[in-house]
Design a protein that fits this description.
By secondary structure, this protein is of the alpha/beta class. The protein has helices spanning 58-65, 106-116, 121-134, 150-162, 180-197, 208-214, 242-245, 248-265, and strands at residues 2-7, 17-27, 33-43, 47-51, 73-79, 91-94, 168-172, 200-205, 217-221, 228-233. The chain binds adenosine-5'-triphosphate and magnesium ion.
């Protein structure tokens, strides 16, 4: 049995959950068993990272949660606010590539999801500008993507994901292509946004260091088909900042996560 079910918030016992995957598997049409069985529960407002070797099914898991793809078996449940009008509305997706439309302005890029949803122009422009301000790009609404740095393009992509005010933000290796300093800055800005907006964030990364820095929980996956190898809670003084990144506790967590990840890479070429 496979299904994607939307909770209304009145189903007792699950109201604190944003996402729940139970016994979820995914086999693609070509026979590749990509995922599972996977059991994962993410609480509302939680920030979790998915970490695992290439091809273990991290992007597949995000696509299932976003309802861009259906599970082969098991149940994906999403809690949404009452009255959410259509599938996908409660979810913002940030991909590894910013995937901006090069022929139009930053504002129009950010406005696109609202335009597709039929939101009137004046309202959608205002909301796009608010989203741009929230990622520090208030002054770049009229710019074209080619005029922006890689980090700025990723900020635009984040603004576009936030513009519909989603409950859940899915981020698939969003900062992987950026230099380290830009990545650190975006990590801090993302944490500040998460604290302010209270979204549930599911963040995919290959970086142990990034996962520990950002997340309340690091979920380590096995090699394909991806299952959960370890689920490690990262507890520290909030809000996190550079002092956490340089602390002994941070190093200890990185070591634990690396150790949990090691079996997933055993037998794989390190090239
Ligand atoms: N549309 C598809 N059709 C067939 N196979 C697919 C499809 N998408 C992904 N796969 C396969 O499913 C497996 C999991 O892919 P997925 O993209 O989810 O991995 P990933 O963990 O995100 O990897 P990476 O870290 O490299 O991004 C891989 O073996 C991949 O080749
Ligand atoms: Mg992927």
């Amino acid at each position: 049995m496979s299904s994607v079910k939307t909770l209304t918030g009145v189903e007792t016992g699950l109201t604190a959950l944003a996402v729940s995957l139970r016994g979820v598997t995914k086999t693609y049409d070509n026979g590749v068993v990509a995922l599972g069985p996977l059991d994962l529960a993410v609480r509302r407002g939680e920030f979790i990272s998915l970490l695992g070797p290439s091809g273990c099914g991290k992007s597949t898991a995000l696509r299932l949660i976003a309802e861009l793809s259906a599970p082969s078996s098991g149940i994906v449940r999403l809690a949404r606010r009452e009255g959410t009008p259509r599938p996908g509305h409660g979810i913002g997706f940030v991909f590894q590539e910013p995937t901006l439309m090069p022929w139009t302005s930053v504002r129009e890029n950010v406005r696109l999801p609202l335009k597709l949803a039929g939101v009137p122009k004046a309202e959608s422009r205002g909301r796009a500008d608010e989203a741009l301000a929230s990622v520090g790009l208030a002054d770049f609404a009229e710019a074209f993507p080619r005029e922006l740095s890689g980090g700025m393009k990723m900020r635009v992509s984040l603004a576009r994901a936030l513009v519909t005010d989603p409950d859940i933000l899915l981020m698939d290796e969003p900062f992987a292509a950026l230099d380290e300093i830009t990545r650190f800055r975006l990590n801090n800005d993302l944490l500040a946004l998460w604290r302010r907006l209270g979204k549930t964030v599911i963040f995919v990364t290959h970086s142990v260091f990034e996962s520990v820095y950002l997340s309340q929980r690091v979920v380590v996956m096995t090699a394909r088909p991806g299952r959960i190898q370890a689920d490690i809670r990262i507890e520290t003084v909030e809000p996190r900042g550079e002092e956490f990144r340089t602390s002994a506790a941070y190093s200890d967590y990185c070591r634990s996560v690396s150790a949990a990840l090691a079996p997933s890479y055993s037998g794989q070429s390190t090239l």
